[in-house]
């Protein structure tokens, strides 16, 4: 026979239950009816709880950004997609969110920013002021003029690409271009960051393992976004226990961070101008070590480790995705390859990366690849800390105006903008020509303003010029070879899942090809 609970305990349980019920009732009332965002269109369940987003992100394999697109089709250009989250699908409002001009501050949303675990990097900087200070320290290394100095490095890596093509042709093997371009981008950015290279182009098997493990880590981003305590718990466990519980991708990422930390410690331990640095241009992190613009706390090993992890991973994976997508479409659409080759034939093969980038059709291919890889595929929200915004639009001969209070998490995802048919007709078609000319130059200018692959404004990607230079030299080099796709479809490069960056069909092996040989002379 069960003993009755003591009266004091019953009272505590009863008060707790009534308090919880009262709090939930208040939450429902506030979020659905009293919140400043309550009158915005959108599903009530999304306004009520972030579990709505969690369901589509976790249970539905990173589909919330696509669900948001469906919401806009139902509710219009402004939708409340979370308790404090608003999405606007309007290319004309992009600059208000991301590039409002001097005097307007834009912070990042702390809750949406924590999933990557690089909080003290420039990309992880929450406030406008902190980001500006960190970004100013990096800007000199990523100017077009500074990237131009990398021409010998870029040519050296493209020669390695062609050596790989030649070897694969002779051996009759299948080549995974995803692994090749991962290695290509990683070798370049690692050398730029630290003054040395892992030479993954010399070990494509290792490159494939690392690429697969990075993809696995990215696959956990949504879980870390909604259940960040799991990462904290894993970090609290002793290494001997935690490492056994981690999937291979996470273990590989931890080993990668350990290697990055060793690189940072080596640079910091040397003080100004290590002897082995005097014989070559300074690396990014020796520059950050010596620069007076940053206070000493900003030069701590932990902060620079976060900076280096973000820089090397973003500088590897994003260029790889764009290169793979571009190469796929060049192989799948011979007419595009023919136009590119004709343009390259009209120019000396020895021209520099900066000159290649000016070639109209090659530039169009690069821009179209960036557009359809979508940059950061998530919402990438901004918060106006001290400014009330008003969004106005007209529909069905009616004028609408919605007030967006300070502190609201506001976004316009690249999926929404890059597939807006009023800007990009037939948006899912790979068409480099759309970037070259237009009878109406206003349309071309609008497309350029609507490109968010590198974002816009003061938080635009610092590495955009490096990524474009890498793509220009790599695509020009591969155009000299006849290559055919092997067991690869468009689903292997298409945006089907949002794991912070584009993820194609789950289980994809990457873009695989067979090398026929150097380009035929009669072409």
From TrEMBL:
Cofactors: heme
PANTHER family: CYTOCHROME P450, N-ACETYLTRYPTOPHAN 6-HYDROXYLASE IVOC-RELATED
MF-aspect GO terms: heme binding; iron ion binding; monooxygenase activity; oxidoreductase activity, acting on paired donors, with incorporation or reduction of molecular oxygen
Top-level taxon: Eukaryota
InterPro entries, per database record: Cyt_P450 (IPR001128), Cyt_P450_E_grp-IV (IPR002403), Cyt_P450_sf (IPR036396), Cytochrome_P450_monoxygenase (IPR050121)
Family affiliation: Belongs to the cytochrome P450 family.
Protein name (database record): Cytochrome P450
Coiled coil: none
Residues the record lists as binding heme: 461
Source species of the chain: Apodospora peruviana
Alphabetical UniProt keywords: Heme, Iron, Metal-binding, Monooxygenase, Oxidoreductase
């Amino acid at each position: 026979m069960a003993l009755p609970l003591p009266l004091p305990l019953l009272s505590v349980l009863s008060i707790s239950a009534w308090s919880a019920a009262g709090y939930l009732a208040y939450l429902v009332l506030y979020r659905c009816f009293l919140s400043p965002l309550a009158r915005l269109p959108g599903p009530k369940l999304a306004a009520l709880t972030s579990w709505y987003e969690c369901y589509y992100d976790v249970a539905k394999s990173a589909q919330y950004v696509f669900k948001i697109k469906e919401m806009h089709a139902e509710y219009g250009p402004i939708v409340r997609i979370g308790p404090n989250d608003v999405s606007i699908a309007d290319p004309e409002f992009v600059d208000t969110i991301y590039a409002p001009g001097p005097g307007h501050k834009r912070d990042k949303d702390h809750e949406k920013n924590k999933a990557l675990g690089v909080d003290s990097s420039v990309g992880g900087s929450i406030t406008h002021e902190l980001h500006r200070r960190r970004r100013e320290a990096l800007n000199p290394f990523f100017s077009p003029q500074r990237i131009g100095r990398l021409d010998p490095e870029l040519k050296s890596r493209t020669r390695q690409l062609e050596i790989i093509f030649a070897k694969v042709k002779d051996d009759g093997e299948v080549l995974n271009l995803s692994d090749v371009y991962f290695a290509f981008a990683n070798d370049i950015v690692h050398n730029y960051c630290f003054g040395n290279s892992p030479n993954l182009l010399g070990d494509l098997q290792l490159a494939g393992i690392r690429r697969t493990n990075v993809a696995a880590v990215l696959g956990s981003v949504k879980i870390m976004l909604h259940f960040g305590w799991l990462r904290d718990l894993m970090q609290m466990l002793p290494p001997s226990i935690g490492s056994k519980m981690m999937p291979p991708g996470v273990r590989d990422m931890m080993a990668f961070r350990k290697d990055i930390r060793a690189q940072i410690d080596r640079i910091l331990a040397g003080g100004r101008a290590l002897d082995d640095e005097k014989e070559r241009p300074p690396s990014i992190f020796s520059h950050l070590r010596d620069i007076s613009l940053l206070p000493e706390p900003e030069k701590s090993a932990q902060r620079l480790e976060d900076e280096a992890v973000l820089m090397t991973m973003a500088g590897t994976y994003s260029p790889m995705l764009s290169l793979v997508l571009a190469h796929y479409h060049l192989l799948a659409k011979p007419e595009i390859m023919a136009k590119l080759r004709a343009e390259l034939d009209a120019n000396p093969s020895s021209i520099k990366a900066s000159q290649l980038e000016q070639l109209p059709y090659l530039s169009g291919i690069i821009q179209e690849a960036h557009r359809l890889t979508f940059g950061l595929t998530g919402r990438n929200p901004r918060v106006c800390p001290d400014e009330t915004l008003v969004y106005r639009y007209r529909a069905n001969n009616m004028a609408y105006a919605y007030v967006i209070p300070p502190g609201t998490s506001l976004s316009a995802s690249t999926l929404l903008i890059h597939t807006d048919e009023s800007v990009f007709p037939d948006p899912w078609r790979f068409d480099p020509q759309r970037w070259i000319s237009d009878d109406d130059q206003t349309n071309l200018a609008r497309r350029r303003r609507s490109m968010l692959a590198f974002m816009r404004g003061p938080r635009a990607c610092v590495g955009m010029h490096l990524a474009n230079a890498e793509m220009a030299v790599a695509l020009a080099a591969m155009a000299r070879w006849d290559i055919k796709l092997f067991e690869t479809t468009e689903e292997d490069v298409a945006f089907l899942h949002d794991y912070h960056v584009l993820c194609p069909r789950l289980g994809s092996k990457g873009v695989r090809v067979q090398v026929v040989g150097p380009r035929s002379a009669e072409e």
